[in-house]
Specification:
About 40% of the residues lie in helices and about 10% in strands. It is α/β, with parallel strands linked by helices and about 150 residues long. The longest helix is centred in the middle third of the chain and has 12 residues, at about 45-60. The chain is globular, with a radius of gyration of 16 Å. The model has no long low-confidence stretch (mean pLDDT about 85).
């Protein structure tokens, strides 16, 4: 799926399996403004996966920004549990996906307020990049008041 998105967006993609691969990829893309790393949906309840991820994130000696991607279709408790598990990795912003697959949007506000974390993007479908929303006060309030019409 990532290969498909990379092709659509016309961006390079590198698959890594080790810290050494990660360091090599960082060198390969050193001239890029942004490098995105996807952790391939690891089980957040398995500590060793989170430890491996922490090792990768703390490896580079370059400035990084860490986003956590959460599905709005997840239960509210699971969203908070996932956030709590990854928070020690230095999560700076959250991306919520699957807006189009639910009618329950409270987790957006609940997490942002409780954890004082910024929501950077919300995805609203499968059309990349057309279904990527940058939330603002109007979009969030319309969602919470069920007035958002672009779902």
């Amino acid at each position: 799926q990532l290969k498909t998105y990379a092709k659509i967006l016309d961006v390079p993609l590198e698959v890594i399996y080790s810290v050494e691969d990660y360091e090599n990829a960082l060198q390969k893309f050193v001239n890029y403004d942004r490098i995105f790393v996807d952790t391939a949906g690891r089980n957040f309840r398995q500590e060793h996966f989170v430890s491996e991820l922490k090792q990768l994130i703390t490896t580079p000696k370059v400035p990084t920004q860490t986003f956590l991607v959460l599905a709005l279709t997840a239960k509210a408790k699971d969203i908070f549990d996932i956030y709590a598990q990854f928070k020690p990795l230095g999560i700076e912003q959250v991306i919520f996906t699957k807006l189009d697959e639910t009618e329950t949007y409270g987790s957006l506000l609940n997490l942002a307020v409780k954890e004082k974390i910024e929501i950077s993007y919300i995805t609203n479908g499968q059309n990349v990049p057309d279904d990527l929303l940058i939330p603002n006060e109007k979009i969030l309030s319309d969602l919470l008041l069920r007035r958002y019409q672009n779902v």
